[in-house]
Description:
- With about 140 residues, the protein is mainly beta.
- It has a single domain, classed as PCu(A)C copper chaperone (Immunoglobulin-like), CATH 2.60.40.1890.
- About 10% of the residues lie in helices and about 50% in strands.
- It has one helix and eleven strands.
- It has one helix spanning about 1-15, and strands spanning about 20-25, 30, 40-45, 55-60, 65-75, 75-80, 85-90, 95, 100-110, 115-125, 130-135.
- Strands 1, 2, 3, 4, 5, 6, 7, 8, 9, 10 and 11 form an eleven-stranded mixed sheet that branches.
- A hairpin with an 8-residue loop joins strand 2 (about 30) and strand 3 (about 40-45).
- The longest helix has 13 residues, at about 1-15.
- The model has no long low-confidence stretch (mean pLDDT about 90).
- Bound molecules: copper (II) ion.
- Copper (II) ion binds next to strand 9.
Amino acid sequence: MRYCLSLLFALVFAFPVLGQGIVADSLWLRESIPGQPNGAGFGTIENHSSNDMVLVSAQIDIAGEVQVHEHVHENGQMRMQRMEGLTINAGSSVMLRPGGYHLMLLGLQQPLVSGDTHRVTLLFSDGTQVEVETEVKPLVRQHQH
Length: 145
Ligand SMILES: [Cu+2]
């Protein structure tokens, strides 16, 4: 019981550091395919705040620009397009995954190498910035990009 209370206090006091209740610890970057100028980031973004949050972009020091993308079906084809913003409702979460929502890293200055870690800053429409350490992982299965 004492342990549980300690843990609870630890969580409560750790919370504000995470930035307005956004938790994105599971974000990861896909290992670069040789010759690919762009990269992608995936993972779950949780919104523990009482406000809907809109992810508009992100920053990483090894890419010129990071956009929020979604995949859409069009005439039997899958293609991706930029989103103005990805809404994560209060108390909810959104999963970024291959073939769905993702962070698009444009103009990589170096390849993403499996095992490396990079700091990503998520930018929200209300000005909130959330920094997360992301690990580069290899492709698990083939998908388009
Ligand atoms: Cu994309």
